[in-house]
Write a structure and sequence with these properties.
Layout (H helix, E strand, L loop, with lengths): L3 E5 L5 E6 L2 H23 L7 H10 L6 E3 L3 H25 L7 H24 L13 H11 L14 H24 L17 H30 L4 H9 L1 E3 H7 L9
Helix pairs in contact: 1-7, 2-9, 3-4, 6-7
Bound molecules: protoporphyrin IX containing FE (HEM).
Length: 271
């Protein structure tokens, strides 16, 4: 399988044009293979959850908490759904033509790109000023939580830390999608210089052929990675045991019981 596609200038020189679109099918395949592997694993997994009696005890001890615990503000939910709409528009406008469904996609694509860029800028400001900025990041400090989660996965009852606001898997996912989104947005904004838009006169000569080639390769690589990442995200969102999280992204709250069952109240202090 070729990873890159090369073209020829009128002078016969080879230039890098973009990634090979075989990588799109590879990412699609990886996404579907992951969900099949995970779904099969979940049928066999011994995953240890807090049992009902234990959660009953915790609930009785924390009757001071409101019955509904706020998880996502209106602004956070709006960001999520605007970003999701932009992301799906970007994926479909980029990859349907590559899969053979031709239509004038470029203008829809960059318009959705600008919506995605604006929503990410909003999210960065919102998360820095109004949210608990560090609650979503992972690092070496999370090793005890990783160990405890692995032990629970093997069916053991352990005292180790439970997640704060975001489960470990969600925090790792966020890290990867941040990297892919930053690459796709910065390269996409640069690529707007090459296409016709109402904002400025297009200038395909702003960068050398090699630099344009590398920009298109970076955009393509991050773009195909997002195919697999989005498949994995949607898969987890629709799994029945995760509906309580998905519902909270619509309604904004989780129940007191779900809060005590899945979180460490010391690491995510409910208000
Ligand atoms: C989910 C995110 C995105 C995906 C999956 C995606 C995917 C793609 C793909 C596969 C191409 C074709 C590249 C090629 O021919 O080598 C492309 C082109 C392009 N994208 Fe994106 N993109 C995304 C986000 C963005 C963003 C955020 C912007 C702008 C802000 C943007 C602007 C452009 C532009 C201007 C082109 C060039 C069209 C051309 O030269 O004909 N894209 N994109």
């Amino acid at each position: 399988m070729n990873l890159l596609t090369w073209g020829r200038t009128p002078w016969g020189e080879w230039i890098l044009t973009h990634i090979s679109w075989d990588l799109l099918w590879a990412s699609l395949f990886a996404g579907v293979a992951f969900l099949l592997a995970h779904a099969s694993y979940m049928l066999l997994s011994a995953h240890r959850k807090r049992d009902a009696a234990e959660t009953d005890r915790l609930e009785a001890a924390r009757a001071d908490l409101p019955p509904r615990i706020a998880r996502h503000s209106v602004a956070a939910r709006l960001f999520h759904w605007v970003m999701a709409a932009a992301m799906f528009t970007l994926l479909f406008t980029a990859f349907l033509p590559i899969a053979g469904i031709k239509f004038p996609w470029v203008q829809w694509h960059w318009m959705a790109g600008l919506v995605l860029t604006a929503s990410i800028l909003f999210h960065i400001v919102h998360a820095t000023v109004w949210m608990d900025f560090w609650s979503i990041w992972v690092g070496p400090k999370d090793m005890p939580e990783l160990k405890a989660e692995l032990m629970r996965e093997l069916g053991h009852e352990v005292d180790g830390p439970k997640p704060g606001k975001y489960p470990l898997g969600n925090r790792l996912y966020h890290l990867v999608i941040v990297a892919a989104a930053l690459v796709v947005v910065t390269s996409g904004l640069l690529m707007m210089v090459r296409v016709r838009t109402p904002f400025f006169t297009r200038n395909p000569y702003m960068l050398s052929d090699m630099k344009w080639g590398l920009t298109y390769v970076a955009h393509g690589l991050a773009g195909v990675a997002l195919v697999g990442l989005v498949i994995a995200h949607v898969y987890f969102a629709v799994r029945p045991e995760k509906w309580w999280i998905t519902k909270s992204m619509i309604l904004g709250w989780i129940t007191r019981r779900q809060y005590l069952e899945h979180h460490d109240p010391q690491r995510w202090v409910a208000r």
